[in-house]
Design a protein that fits this description.
Small_GTP-bd; six-stranded mixed β-sheet; membrane; nucleotide-binding; 32% helix; 23% strand; 6 helices; alpha/beta
Amino acid sequence: MAEHHFLFKTILIGNSGVGKTSIITRYVDKIYTENFISTIGVDFKIKTIELDGNIVKLQIWDTAGQERFRAITTSYYRGSQCILIVFDVTDRESFNEIPSWIQEIKKKCVKNPLIVVLGNKIDDKDKLDVTEDEVKNFIKKESFLKDCLYRFISAKENTNIDDIFITVVKKLMERVSLEEPDNEKDLGDITFTENQKRCC
């Protein structure tokens, strides 16, 4: 029996403190803690799931949000089939920084990753500073995000965490079925056509 049928690499980016590590730990380890130390450089976890009769291994990379670490994380964009841009719905500045993270993707990606925008910390209802309509409008105006997914989530309350990762896996599996050149199902080996590329 194969160890896995699909291997996908995903990476979470976004400002420091938006909850990237909490999201990953909630999804992979099913735990949540308030006491995370800021990620230095990069870290990753692996989640193996069974979906539609296939065993899927998901590499989920966690990156530091601080400006001084961005050069270190450059190489980790390469080969990523999905990039999740995380912002904090109680921190407007983290939402306003999304365009700069998009520029990072454009500079560092070679292939066409699936883009996901995640608004974390919706559990903190008294401090909400970014609305879902604002996110929808931003995505609509940003041509680079025309095929992207978005969710409002809470790592603390486990809201929409499993849902978004399952949706990501399904989307990536669909891409493989459309682009699969032979029997190899690792999306990292697939070359997209020029019309499909959004990254430089």
